């Protein structure tokens, strides 16, 4: 009859090493979790404004901005300049009701509205309307434009930039405000 053999010390050594290895691995994993988890809210806090900005941009809808009322625009076709104001938001701050540009609005006897950007397509100065000459004139380098926005001399590379305009249910005039690259014959939207 054979006697049960007792495990030799040499046979127990790998098992003890394995246990130590597993214990060390578990400690490492727990340590990593403990170190990383508290930083997640911080990262989320830093990224939040950027994510929020994207959502705000998407919520702006079709890009039309309220400018004025129909009654504020002369009926005789002569243009009037109006500021374009909107809320500006960078990654962390919101600046309500800031002027971002200006537009010319005109209305003919049939009630048709016309809108042009006040930005000169030559090099970006602000265009004025000269009532006496019935021309749009830029004070910087003498670009001039007719009432329909067509360039009147060859200084600007293109005619004035028209903007889409509509009237909402409250009889307010809304403009799809855009800016365009200056100095090019082709009309390219910048923003
Ligand atoms: S910027 Fe208007 S004429 Fe040059």
UniProtKB/TrEMBL annotation:
One of its GO terms (molecular function) is 2 iron, 2 sulfur cluster binding. Residues 102-176 form the Rieske domain. Pfam families: Rieske. Gene3D superfamilies: Rieske [2Fe-2S] iron-sulphur domain. The keyword Plastid does not apply. The chain crosses the membrane at residues 20-47. InterPro entries: Rieske_2Fe-2S (IPR017941), Rieske_2Fe-2S_sf (IPR036922), TAT_signal (IPR006311). Keywords: 2Fe-2S, Iron, Iron-sulfur, Membrane, Metal-binding, Transmembrane, Transmembrane helix. This is Cytochrome b6-f complex iron-sulfur subunit. It comes from Caulifigura coniformis.
């Amino acid at each position: 009859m054979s006697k049960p053999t007792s495990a030799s010390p040499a046979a127990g050594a790998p098992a003890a090493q394995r246990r130590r290895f597993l214990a060390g691995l578990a400690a490492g994993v727990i340590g990593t979790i403990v170190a990383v988890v508290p930083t997640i809210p911080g990262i989320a806090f830093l990224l939040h404004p950027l994510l929020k900005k994207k959502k705000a941009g998407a919520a702006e809808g079709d890009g039309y901005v309220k400018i004025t009322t129909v009654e504020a625009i002369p009926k005789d076709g002569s243009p009037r300049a109006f500021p374009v104001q909107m809320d500006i938001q960078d990654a962390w701050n919101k600046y309500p009701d800031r002027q971002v540009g200006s537009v010319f609005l005109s209305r003919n006897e049939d009630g048709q509205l016309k809108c042009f950007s006040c930005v000169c397509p030559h090099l970006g100065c602000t265009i004025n309307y000269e009532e006496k000459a019935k021309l749009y004139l830029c004070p910087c380098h003498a670009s001039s434009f007719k009432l329909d926005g067509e360039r009147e001399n060859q200084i600007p590379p293109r005619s004035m930039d028209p903007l889409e305009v509509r009237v909402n249910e409250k009889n307010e005039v809304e403009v799809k405000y855009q800016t365009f690259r200056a100095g090019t014959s082709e009309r390219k939207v910048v923003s």
